[in-house]
Amino acid sequence: MSNNKNNFSYWIITSIIICTMFVAGLFMFKSGGDYFNFINFWGGKTQALANEDIVASKQSNKTVNTRVKYVNFTFKSTNIKSGDVYLKADFNLWDNSLKLIKNSKNIWEVSVALLPGEYKYYFEANGERILDPANNNIVEISDEQFCIKKVG
Q: What mean pLDDT, rounded, does the chain reach?
């Protein structure tokens, strides 16, 4: 008899857990717009920046509308004859997604849509890290130097 009681208790507890998980799942899908927009933060933010939308940001517990700014990054060097130049920054998670385009005056350039703020960056050419020669605003963090670009 006690074996049946334990077996019955097991099924009751298991049923309660499954129902709770089901209800929680329904709640997440019902409010899924906000939940999944939070999970897809980078994708949503990138799309808003690309469309030059007004993006809401929180500052001191109030919502403020901020206009996206297009910021030009240019790089000129006579030392680089071939290869690609990339902009690596905290806003692109330090990857090679922003390739600069070389114009007819041998200047590499790229334009990036950014929210107002302060950003760390550097250039990379042929695998070599290069600070922006036109920017004297440099900070050192953990024995590495970064250029600082302020967007207002």
A: 74
User: Which residue among 21, 46, 65 closes a domain?
Assistant: 65
- The residue segments making up the domain with residue 132 are 67-151
Identify the band that residue 7 occupies on the pLDDT scale cut at 50, 70 and 90.
Answer: confident
State residue 21's pLDDT score.
57
Residue closest to 55 by CA, chosen among 146, 47, 89: 47
Which residue, 65, 86, 109, sits at the end of a domain? 65
For residues 59 and 71, membership in a common domain is answered with no
Q: Give residue-wise pLDDT tens across range 37-89.
A: 333 334 434 434 444 444 444 445 555 556 889 999 999 887 777 789 999 99
The first and second tokens of residue 81, run together, are 């004859």
SS3 percent helix, strand, coil of the chain, rounded to 5, is: 35, 40, 25
- Please name the helix (run of DSSP H) or strand (run of DSSP E) that holds residue 111, with its range, or none: strand 107-114
Residues 74, 136 within the same domain: yes
* Total count of domains within the chain: 2
